[in-house]
Structures are given as C-alpha cells and as structure tokens.
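Q: Could you fold this chain for me?
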Amino acid sequence: MSLPPEKASELKQIIHNHLLKMDIHGKIREVLAEVVKDEGGSAHQSLSEADLLRALHRRGIIDDVMKDLPFTQAEHSKIEAQPSQKTATHFADKDITQLKKSNVDPSKRYLYLQVLGGKAFLEHLHEPESLPGQVCSTFTLYVHFRNQRFRSKPVPCACEPDLKEGFLLEIHRDSFGEGTKMADATAMLSICDRVHLVLIKTDTSNETTLISSYFVDWRAVLSSPSGKTCFAVELMGVGSEFKVPAGVLTVSLELYPPLVETLSSDVISTQQSLERQRTAEKEKLFLVYAKQWWREFLEIRPSHKSKMVKIFAQDENGINRPVCSFVRVLRAGRLLESPRQAARFVSLLAYEKAPVVGGGGGKQEQWCTLMAFLCGGKGDCEDHATLLCSLLLGFGLDAYVCVGTKAKGVPHTWVLTRGTDGSITFWESLTAHRYLHQPIDSDAPPLAPQPKPSSPYRTVGCVFNHQTFLANCQPTDAVELCVFDLQNQSRWKAMSEEALRSVCAPGSTASLPPLPPLCAPTLDPAATSNQMELEMRYLVSEHRKDLGLATVWDDHLSYLLSSALSAYELERCSGVSCGNEEFQDAVRRAVPDGHTFKGFPIHFLHCNARRAFATCLKSPFCEEIVCCRGDHMRLAVRVRVFVYPENACAVWLMFACKYLSIL
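A: Sure. Below is the predicted structure, expressed as structure tokens.
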C-alpha cells in the first residue's frame, strides 16, 4: 500500500527524530568497532552490510529500535468516535484485538497516557480466576480529554485486574490564530482541563455498574526532565461510597515530542493552587448569593419552603454543584437528525435509580456527570432530563429542565420547551413522549369548558437550563394551573444570570467537568439483527422440542414482518404512524384462505436473546404463538436492531404464526 507524499515525509520525520533520540549512530559505531576487533583487525578483509546487520540484530539493537519506536505499537484502546470499528461497547467484546495505528501530526503535541495495571480492587479479592473462553464479569476503562474519547478492551474483574492500555491524547490550543502551533510548556500549564477516567464493570448478563469516576491533573509531566512521569491513582467509589477506595491504577504520562525546556514543580503547584483558590472563591460567593436569594424567595410566601426548588445537586463523586452546571449546549453533529430523534435516543438509555446499600426506602442523591452517564449507559430521571435538555438546546430550542413531582408525589424531572408562539411542550425523557401543556384558567366561570390535563406531572417547583434558574412563586405549584410565562417576575423568581455564569459557564471554574462529545455507534445493525434472530430461532425450536412439538419456519413470512418493525420504530421516533396498510396487504397475500395469522411485537433495550425470550414467554399472547399447535402450522420470527449514538439500541422483535383453521 503506497502512502501519499505528505504522509511518507511525516513518517520519515518521526523515525528520524526517534533514531536521534536513541543515539543510533553512536551505537552503530560501537558495534562496528567490536565487529572489526572480533575479526582480528584484518584490514584486507572487507565487512559487508549484511555482516553489520547481523551484528546489530545479534546485539538486540534492531529489536530495541522497533520496540521503543512511538506510535507504531499495538494499541489496544478503541477510539469510540470512529464508526469504522465494529466492537460492541455495551455487550461482550468478541473481536480480536488488531494493530491500532495512530495518525500523528509531527507539528502537534501529544500526551501518551498509559495504564500499567490495577491493584487493591478488594471487592474482587475472592473472584475466581476465569478460564479461557469462559464468560465473566469485566472492567472497561473510558477516557475523555478535550473532546477526545477512548475506551480500553474489557479485562476480567480481579483484585489486580490486567488493565494495561495506552491512549494518545492530542494537546491542542484554544486561542484563535494559534491553534496550529505546537503547545509549549507555558501554554500547556494554562490548560486546566483534566483527563476524566471512568471505570465500568459489566457482569455476565451485560448489566453495567459505575465503579469510579476520577479526574487526573496531567500537568505534573511538564516538570519531568525526561518528559515522562509515573504515579498511582487511587480510584474512589461513587454515590454513597464516594469516600471508600475502589482500587488503584498505575498511570504513566509521557509527552511527545519531549519539551525542550521543562517547568519547575513549584511553578506547576503554584498554578494549581491559584486555580483552586479562584474556584473556591467563586463557589463561596455563589453560595452566599444563593442563600440570600433563597431567603428572599421564602419571604414571598411561607409555603414556598415545601416547594421542590433544587439549586444544588450532588454528582457521583459526592461534590455539590449548581444544577445549571449539569446542562450544556450539546450538538450531536451528524449522529442525530432532529429533536424528536434526540428524545428517542435519550429514552433508549436505561433508567436506574442510584443504588442504595440497605433499606429505608430513601432516594440516594446522585446526578451523574455526562461522561459517567454515557459510559454506563443508564441513569436516573435527572440524568436523562439534563442530557435531553442539552441536546434540545443544541437543536436551537428554548429548553429547560423541570423539577417537580408526578403521581403520588413521587419526585421527578422532565423537560419543557417554549415555542415562539408561547406554546409549552413537556418532554418525558424516559419515554420520549411529548405533551402539549394547556393551563386551567382559575378565574374562568364555573361552567366554562377547561382543558383536561394531558401530562402525568402534578407539581413543578423550579425550571432551569445552562444559564437560567427560575423558581415557581405562583400561589400553587400544581402543573395544571401553572402559567409558564417565565419572564413574568410575579410568577417566576429568577436567579442572577451573571452569578450563574460565574460558576456554570464552560471554563468558569477548574472543577467543572468538561462536556464529552457523543460517539458514533460501532455496532453493525444488520449483523446484530441476524445474530439475535438466529439465536431466537434456536431458543424457540428448543422450547417447542421440550413440549414435543416440531418447528417449521416460514422464511418469507419472517421477511414480511420487517416492514411492521420498521414502522413501529419510525412511529416512536417521529410520532407519525405509516406503512401499516402495506404490511397488512402483504400478510393477507402470504396467508392462504382458511388460515389464521397471529403476530406479537415487543420492544427491548438490549440484545440478549435469552433474556428477551424469557420476557416474551411471560406474555400469554406470545406463549400462545410460540407453543401453537395446528394443521399446516408455520412459525416466523423477525428481529430488527436500530442503533443510535453510544451504541444505544432499540430492539424490535416479532413472533408470528399461521395455521389452517379447523372448526
């Protein structure tokens, strides 16, 4: 395979720089002197190039060059943002690790982060050693740095997991006009973005658990004369266990190319201390302002004390942050085409309340950072609502997160959008359902017709987005009576936008987690659909065999079910039903006169065929089809997997049968 001229010169430059760094000429001279000496100093005997190469190989010089040459080693890390890779992120990784080549620009600076192994994961102290080919629980490490996302290959869970990975992170400038220049030590010192590490455990049934979320300040490498540093990172637990160590990772950092002039460790520690002081000062001033604002809010009505006005929330690391910092303007590029498709994508991320150890029925406070939510693939209603609001803001809508309650007073969050005509639409982030809000006029005559509440929401205490926070100061917080005229100060008490910007705007404080980009799906929907359909056929055949029934498949009828499954997903995505007439017409043609047709569609968020089949059999309608007896009985099954960003899957499955009706 031939390289373009610019790539060839780039590669030559990298090799040349590396050979100079190794002092390869000095080593060749030493070997040459030794070879001549071994030959007895015979001047008349000529030394060929092949003899010299053999001598270099024998002394391990060539092996050292190839081993240490940067950027050509086997890179096990998967770059999630490249759709060309076909590795599952939410499911068992069955792909063979292939050689990973990195495109390196010699004019840019890179940080090579290596994880050299883990230890002290005491929760897995008695984990049995996995046998080759055996399905076991795994750890996967996810990395985010300045709009770049990577993930490691999954490794078996153990007290000392074999997490050994390398991630090549580009360090680019933010300033306009200098984005193409290589960042020097001073420029890199001013970059306060940290490397976000997220460790996820995946069990044997593909259920994920967030183990740790950790931020690494990488700037210690700027003081290393060799351009390389190594240290241990103590990962802490999450949620109620945020003070409990989860394990230790050994991490190595290296700059490419190395710095000509390094900084002193005192300069770096002074910069970090100044950043911490500025952050603490801003957070303290905002806290003082928030307390004063809250006192003013309570003075309006004493009953306001019971309203759900949420100013701060705790993230997975136990850090209290203003709720507005959890929402950012998030653009999905080409990955999502419309606001409704964005709502569909968010609804496909699994819903799970923050886990609590022990009983008591209390709700654990945990609003996840976006990176932790996306890597785990599941979260609470707050995580879904803040992500959906961020995406809708990216699509140019005037979107807000609502905090309130639904039926039976259960706390809940959802999303609200305001149209230019004043219309109010509620978006349920867990289901992608939309509700048009029409408030009841409390001043209308008793017999005047009033709109019926269409949404499941009962009360609303406050609404917020990335730059606005508004508390409901209307006489009642009942949603059906609320008027969402957010500019009306007699109905909604606003916080100072300047105060919110000081702690919530991107880059305002060093402690604010950076916004990760969405990653393109790496699953092949056709291959995944085919694999799951084959597994489903096998499970049905085995189930019928246990009942003493034969199984005959109708491939044509199975194929016809595709159009129905496609129409179901389109309806979920756009709210428009279409294609049903064509499906019904095709089925009528495929089912002979006197025969009966039965079909059962069902929807899942995972690709585990056994789990799906067990769920299907709980439905009497499905069991009636799978266990059907009759004359000329034919079975059909079709699976369609629709893949969204982050490998979120909408799995549609349909069982059908046709048989001769006998009276």
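A (continued): The radius of gyration is 30 Å.
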